[in-house]
Amino acid sequence: MEQDLSKVTPLVYESRIGVPYNWWAGQTASHFFETIAHDRKLAATKCGQCGKVFVPPRKTCPECFVDATEWINLSGTGTVVTFTVVSRKLAALGSRNPPVIFALIKPDGADTAMLHILGNIAPEKVHTGLAVKPVFVENPKGHITDISHFEPV
Amino acid sequence: MENIAIIGIGMIPIKANYKTHNFADMAWETVNAALKDAGITIKDVENVITTSNDFWDGRTISCMAVGDASGVREKNCSCVEGDGTFGAFYGMARILSGSYGTTLVTGHTKGSESISSLITNAAFDPIYERALGPDMISGCAMQARAYMERHGISSRQTALVSVKNHGNAKHNPYAQLPLDISVDDVLNSEMIADPLRKLDCSPVSDGCCAIILANEEKAKKLCQKPVWVKGAAFTSDAYFLGDRDLADPRSLAAAAKKAYAMAGITDPARQVDIAEVYDAFSYQELMWLEGLGICEPGKAAHQLEKGRFNVGGGLPVNASGGLLSGHPVIAAGLYRIAECVRQLRGEAGAVQKDGAKIAVAQGLNGVAGQSHCVWVLGADK
């Protein structure tokens, strides 16, 4: 049944699924956020078997499939592995306005990179290999945004 | 692996916004098209796999929206949450189990009905990443940069993929965006997330596709022109983007290796006639061709420039127009399989690769291609 809809004002059913979630961070992530709050450091886990250092930290080593055995505190200073400058106001940005610079940052001492945002730098100045350090907020709440952003060393 | 065939395919045109169809309407048309193509009735379908994603649909147990339209009453129906290639893989596994002779596999989305950026943002870890605001585009933009810097690929080179695929779409009545564009058009389009410009990105789309799989006995009994599954495999990479080397499509390479081994393909660069790959973004076509072993790492751009992947070239890639010309997520991988089937049957019209015998279809799941599913299809058993 075909209809010409060009002259019709559609009746659109607007809906939204607003389901709240309360996630427990778990012991590993809790330790990560406590270390930011108390020590202004990034807590990483090291696998006793392969020696790999993971940030964000993991309870288990995903490669060896064993418990990660050791905590290591990193300063968080590291290098930009890759990045993007978002120019369009994508909905996921929420209250942030373009340009927003996402980066994968490999902290010195870690074998993985972590996702965060670069600040205090003009977008054109960002490059792979840029040395950056984390900037922590005054009043940490136990959230990834307790790291406000990473900026050039 | 025992012989499995694709005996029917059904597609509906990919559109920006299907105002006249809900999910069930889309499934009804696609399933009936596949049944007609196979020359069978819904009674010959022994079990059903639907592919859908609850978050995209805005409905939990999202397969139920298309259940009746897919003939699932009194049948075993299950849902795969992921790309259509994964749905088809499960559908095939059910036949290989010996429990069923035929499986109908469908896949649907209506990207128009919600906000893709918010949905893909939800794929990111809620404790460590989501609140920062990343989504599929920013995640893939980081991969694009990593890949292009690793191999010295320019935006002019990735733009060629967009030019080729939108141009191919002119010959595909199912494509959403047939366009006559130039490299400069791509480079002048709006920058979304550096280095991805608007014409480097697939659009938001609505679509639905269905395929019917059968074991050899049923294929012989029911089908005139079966297309054979020579190999199929899927492999995952790490979840956190920072755990991965984003420039290295290792999970795709692992899946391709397994699929080729099943198919007895030892030199894909020479033995594959045609490919439909997951070009959600222009750079991805190049990366995935390398992961598929059709080119050496970093070399796909050069081969593209030489015309190898054009219609009429040695190995046409995305002769259908690919996802750049219309990207209904979830259904996307089934469209890739269906387009390969058309080629292998000699039904691809203006973009037909003459004498195509071996085709590769690829689908992926997760941000920046975390997991990949590779299908090797053959015109002959």
Structure, described:
- The complex is a heterodimer of chains A (153) and B (381).
- By secondary structure, chain A is mainly β.
- Chain A has one domain (26-152).
- Chain A has one helix spanning 26-39, and strands spanning 42-46, 53-54, 60-61, 66-67, 70-74, 78-86, 100-107, 114-118, 131-136, 147-152.
- In chain A, the strands form three sheets. Chain A has a five-stranded antiparallel β-sheet with strand order 8-7-6-9-10, with no helix packed on it. Chain A has a three-stranded antiparallel β-sheet with strand order 2-1-5. Chain A has a two-stranded antiparallel sheet with strand order 3-4.
- The longest helix of chain A has 14 residues, at 26-39.
- Chain A starts with 25 loop residues before the first helix and ends with a strand.
- The model of chain A has no long low-confidence stretch (mean pLDDT 94).
- Chain B has 381 residues and is of the alpha/beta class.
- Chain B has a domain at 4-115 and 204-222: Peroxisomal Thiolase, Chain A, domain 1, CATH 3.40.47.
- Chain B is 35% helix and 19% strand.
- Chain B contains 14 helices and eleven strands.
- Chain B has helices spanning 23-38, 54-57, 64-67, 84-96, 116-121, 136-151, 155-168, 183-188, 216-222, 250-263, 268-271, 282-291, 300-305, 332-345; strands at residues 4-11, 47-51, 76-80, 102-110, 191-193, 196-197, 206-215, 227-236, 274-276, 358-365, 371-378.
- In chain B, the strands form two sheets. In chain B, strands 3-2-4-7-1-8-11-10-9 form a nine-stranded mixed β-sheet. Chain B has a two-stranded antiparallel sheet with strand order 5-6.
- In chain B, β5 and β6 (196-197) form a beta hairpin.
- In chain B, α4 packs across α14 (332-345) and α7 crosses α12.
- The N and C termini of chain B lie close together (12 Å).
- At the A-B interface, β6, β7 and β8 of A face α5, α6 and β5 of B.
- Cα-atom Rg of chain B, whole angstroms? 19 Å
What is the CATH C level class of one domain in chain B, in words?
Answer: Alpha Beta
Helical percentage of chain A: under 10%
Number of domains of chain A: 1
Q: How much helix is in the residues of chain B?
A: 25-40%
Strand % of chain A is 25-35%
Overall pLDDT level of chain A: 94
